[in-house]
Give the backbone structure.
Amino acid sequence: MNNNLPMITGLGYAIPSKAVTNTDLTKIFDTSDEWIYTRTGIKERRLFASDEEAFNLLEKVCKQAIANAGIDVNDIDIIIAASSMPVQLMPNTACMAHKLLGVRKNIPAYDFSAACSGFVYGLDIANSYVRSGMYKNILLIAMDNCSRYLDWTDRRTSILFGDGIGAVVVSAGDENDILSIDIKADGSIGDYITMPVNKGNCPFVDNTPTPQFLDMKGQDVYKFVTNIVPDYVTNEILAKNQINVDEVDYLILHQANQRIIGAVQERLGYDDSKVIKNIEKLGNTSASSIIIALGEALKERKIKTPAKAIVCGFGAGMCWGGGVIRIRDGIFKDANIF
Ligand code: COA
């Protein structure tokens, strides 16, 4: 029997407390609920009210995922965190989780950056770790604090994003929950979404101040994503792995734009009950969006388990990735951890 198959055994997610509606945004620049909603499907987004709240929620989400997986914190062998817009660079998000969880062993903990594809990139990493026999229990976190990287005087970008955290536990077992997984990048169009880093004050090198905000060529991103993602889902995620579109129960796409979700839905011919969404209430929560959408749908019983779902992320880099996962019974029980 193969005991090195990746099983997704637990999930946790959290929604920050501070709600900002489209109407709130009309108070800081010239925009309207109608403009934002018709172009993006977003009505509201949630922001971490403070660093303290962000780390409190990180602790809760990780504990939820671990409790739902039915293991002890000290059974975790490695913590990896998809975080391109972290609350802080050091200590990184994974090491913060190591501390907050009170992990006794010196297990490895690191962050990686794959923007809004972070969760699917993380699934690919976890899949490889488990199948190679390297680690048995992996805590995969996806956490982005988008609001602190946005220019809140820029109505083109700040309307789109919200903050969020999700986590899953991937454990070695005898059943395969990652039925297909693929990740890709095209750095030649990296200028579609950019975010420079502060050049600091070193007097010996170029330290010309640079605006440290996320910038985006919105139309280029939109065209790129709507051109590649529908084909990618049907060819690379499904056909290449001999998975028929009707075998899959749900579509959980990165929550970037309702029109992008609609384009993929149309290609797959899925009715609304098969398409999991939360963009209206949360906006684009970057790496965490797929986990949060899945967690919410499980909590609200919109997903009947066991089930199979297409997951697909895309974002800055440009990078993208996706796969088909099995959603087993009981991965999210909404345990009251605190
Ligand atoms: N409210 C009102 N007007 C706005 C606005 C806002 N929030 N943001 C931009 N505009 C204006 C622009 O200034 C421009 O006006 P002008 O023609 O007078 O110059 C006009 O609306 C059109 O701007 P444009 O940027 O071309 O809008 P768009 O139709 O491309 O829609 C997005 C903008 C961002 C909604 C759209 O490009 C998009 O969804 N892109 C994909 C973004 C995405 O998903 N990114 C994340 C990937 S992970």
The CA atoms of residues 193 and 216 lie 4 Å apart. The chain is about 30% helix and 25% strand.
